[in-house]
Amino acid sequence: MTLIRDFAVIFVCLLMGKAIAAVLPFAFPASIIGLLLLFALLSSNLVRLEWVQAGGQLILRHMALLFIPVAAGLLSYADVLSKGLGFILLAAVTGLVLILLAVGWLYQRLAS
Which stretches are transmembrane (predicted)? Predict the structure, then answer.
């Protein structure tokens, strides 16, 4: 019964995120809005952590299964991905280095 409640709270936040995304004048992922809404509700104690903890842990435990369809879909584009593999790796490494530099700089600014 607790899993039903947990999933219901998470699902309602997702639906509210979809409703908000539908009225926004620009494109924004509804799932991100739903997560931000759930975070705001948890932070303000309108939703207690016990109401979503078991369902959230179950979803996180089985998250790897959710990526199998994506990986299978990428296999059908292997030829396209292999042509641009250098650019993909360059973008990933450059992004990683920029993020590490930004976080390090921000940490140094906040620590001093």
Answer: 31-47, 59-78, 84-107
| Rounded CA separation 3/44 (Å) | 22
Report CA 95 to chain centroid distance, whole Å: 18
pLDDT in tens, 32-65: 999 999 999 999 999 999 999 999 899 889 888 8
Gap between the Cα atoms of 16 and 44, Å rounded: 17
Distance CA(94)–CA(49), nearest Å, equals 37
- For residue 71, give the 3-state DSSP assignment: helix
Structure tokens at 16: 């509210």
What number of other Cβ atoms are within 10 A of residue 37's Cβ? 17
Q: Is the pLDDT confidence value at 75 over 90? A: no
